[in-house]
Each structure stands twice: as C-alpha cells, then as structure tokens.
Write a structure and sequence with these properties.
CATH superfamily of the domain at 46-301: NagB/RpiA/CoA transferase-like
Strand content: 5-15%
CATH class of the domain at 46-301: Alpha Beta
CATH topology of the domain at 46-301: Rossmann fold
Oligomer: single chain
Protein name: Iron-sulfur cluster-binding protein
Distance between the termini: 75 Å
Low-confidence stretches: 489-496
Organism: Streptomyces boluensis
Number of strands: 12
Structural class: alpha/beta
Radius of gyration: 26 Å
CATH architecture of the domain at 46-301: 3-Layer(aba) Sandwich
Shape: globular
InterPro entries: 4Fe4S_Fe-S-bd, 4Fe4S_Fe_S_CS, FTHF_cligase-like_sf, Helical_ferredxn, LUD_dom, LutB/LldF, LutB_C, NagB/RpiA_transferase-like
Domain LUD: 73-285
Strand order of the largest sheet: 1-10-7-4-2-3
Number of helices: 23
Domain Lactate utilization protein B C-terminal: 393-483
Length: 496
Amino acid sequence: MSGTFVGMPSFPEAAHDAVRDATLRANLRHATHTIRAKRAKAVAELDDWAELREAGRQIKDHTLRHLDTYLPRLEESVVRAGGTVHWAADADEANRIVTGLVQATGEREVVKVKSMATQEIGLNEALAAEGITAYETDLAELIVQLGDDRPSHILVPAIHRNRGEIRDIFARTMSEWGRPAPEDLTDTPAELAEAARLHLREKFLRAKVGISGANFMVADTGTLVVVESEGNGRMCLTLPETLISVVGIEKLVPSWQDLEVFLQTLPRSSTAERMNPYTSMWTGTTDGDGPQAFHLVLLDNGRTDTLADEVGRQALRCIRCSACLNVCPVYERAGGHAYGSVYPGPIGAILSPQLRGTESEIDASLPYASSLCGACYEVCPVAIDIPEVLVHLRERVVQGGPATRRGKKVTLRPAKGHAAERAAMRAAGLAFAHPGALAFGQRIAARTRRFHPRRLPGPGRAWSDSRAVPEMPAEPFRDWWQRTRGTGTGEKGGAK
C-alpha cells in the first residue's frame, strides 16, 4: 500500500470496499466507542464546558479575521527570539524550503514529531527524493511508516490496526529501519511499546535535525506549542541541533491568555485527559539549551482561499482533536483511508475539498461522505458547524463554474453523477419560476399516479432500493386549497 493519497478513487468507491472488511470495522468500532465514552466523561466534569467552547470559537474567528495583524506580529516575535521565519504559498514551496534547510546542515536523516501539516504537503516523500530519510517517532506514525501504510485518524493514525497486526509489522520491517524487534516479541501493549522505545532511542540520540508541526503559535511571544502523550515530541524538540517547524497559518492565537482556553478543551476532546501529559513550548533559541537553529515555515497551501469563503472558513478553527471522527457513523464504518486525505472523517470532508479544491473526483465526493446527523457539531470544541459546511460544499460541487485556487483560475466540474443532479435542479428552478407550468405539471402527475413505478429507473434505483417512493396525492395541494377554501384569503366561501 502506498504511503500517499495520490490517485485515490472517490469516497463511495473506496468506502464500498472498506465496509466489507470485517477486521477493519471491528478495530474501528472498538477504538472509536472507547475514546468517545472517555471523552464524554471528561467533558462532563466541567460545568463551564459550553462557555469554554464558545470562547474557543470566538478566539479562532477573531484571529482568522485579523491574520493580517497577527501573522506579522508572530514573525517579529520569532525573529526577536532568535528564529528565522519562511513563508510558503503551497506544498512545493514548503518542501523546497525544508529540504534546502536540511541539506544546508549536511545531514541525511531527520527525526519528526507527529505533524499533519508535513503529511499534507508530502514532506517525507520530498525529502526521500533528495536522499534524506525522515523517521516518524510518534508510536502510531511509526506503525504506519513501518507498515508502508497511510494514516487513517487524526489522533491515532494506526487506529485501523489491531495488536496482532502491529506485532507482525514490527517483526517484519523494524530491522529495515534500524534496531530490529525482539525475536520473542508478543502482541502485549507493554512489549510493543518497549520495542518501539528501544528502536527510536538510537534515532533520538543520533539525529542532528528535528522536524515538527505545532498545535498552536502565540503571536505576542513567538512561542510554539506541541501537545502529545508519549514524550517523543519532547525528545525531537530538545535534542537536535536544528529544529524546523512547518505550521499552517491558521494555528495562531494572539496571546497566552487565549492559549489557556485550548489547553483545557483540546486534551479532553482528543485523549479524554484533564491535561496533556507532555506540553512542549519553545520560543526561538537559547544559547546552550536546546536547538541552536530554529526555522518556522508558515504554510498557506489553500488556507487563504478557504478564508475567503464566508461559510467554509469555519473549518480553519479546527484544533485537530479528532472528536468528530469518533462519533461519526460514516467514519466508523468506512475508516479513514476512504477519505483519500491526511484529514479523514467529518472535518476532512470539509477541509480537504477547500484546501485542495473540488476539481478531483475524490475531493468532489467528500462533501457527500456524511449522513448530516450533526453529531460532529455537538462534540466540536470550537463549534464548527460541519453539516452546514457540507451542504454548502455540495452546492458548490453541483453548481460547478469558475473559481480561484491558489491564485489561479480553475473550472470546478461536478463529480461523476452530479451533472444529472445539476440539470434536474435547473429544470426545477424553471418550473418554480413559472407558476402556470408548475400547476399544469402537478395536475398531470396527480392524474397519472396509478402508472408511477414503485422503483425509480437508472441512477435513482439505488435510492429506491432502500426507500419507498413517495405516493402522489390524488390532487395537488393548491387545487385542494382552492376547492376547500375558495379563492379568497379567508375561510371556505371566499374572503371575509
């Protein structure tokens, strides 16, 4: 299995195979139900959870509206603290910057903190093309890397694997990447974790370059923040001589007071913990302590285009907690790989099409990867109305037409099957614009109702296979109204 998402089929095609994988479904069901129950308990402990949620929403919205103020302030703060700031408009530019920075050190390997931004831009593949090996150090990311796999969850990238599968992966491939797994390795969590710890320890002690993302950036001080549960992030952020952080421009908060809100809501929403086990913060460089060279790569890669959409921009509030994945019935059954993106689940269904555009088959299908049940909105710690954005993006997919993507004019084409839907909507629009034609059509439909099929033909067959086709009434509503109430505005018999 390839480690990238390039060339993935549309969501319905990918999900068709995934829902038939009994092992995958069992793994996902067990993991998501466990995490969701723990989260609910942790959140219930706080009487002011609703207020914290609203505060997070407001802080994020305020910051996004004023990025033109806070991003320059962040750059000034980072430079003042001894760091260097680079601006990357897209993935290619970000990869060139990071690759060049690693090459300048003369090193041929790097250690990485779990980072969705670097996965988004395909950094590992870009480094490999230049002969540089990137070692993932998060346990779940290590499992994915050793298995030549793809991440399937925001918080737990290897959630689709069970302990037996992980044991087999370690035994089979760990030696190809460094220290081999013990010959008598079992599938007990303690032994698997110990094998990973010993395997990674030599990399931590040897690496001269570390690469990270960040959960938050504080504009006032230039401080970057990584929250994690294993301690691998702390090793990557403190031991190397050079640290390179690739961070999306939306990860900004104005002040430490704002950061306080998210350090309460993120742990409870993601790992169901009252506070995060490891919260690492760094501000520039300090002589004789930690990395002596720090580079911050600020990544756009479609975020500015997303910000321009008044409805869709709320996706940029996301703090990557994964709570929406753990309650989503579609994700639970289809798994993360079906979404064809490093961002799976409900948030991926609205974020990926905006960052990448809806020109491709997979991105045009993602807004439909939902039942619109609303569970994702209920658990979101920053109140992203994912169902609202899904409906908004569906409208954009069906309408097609011109758009601007990363400064270039493109044409959005409806995904396969949506051309007919767009034609039907246009026909309905014409009918509703001409009341006489609409009334005539309603009467014809009512009088021919005995001949209406119980199953729809063509593409509509899949819909009617699991639903009853609504029965046509004996007469249109407007005819019934005129017959029973008269033509006036009052009761039967005319106007009073």
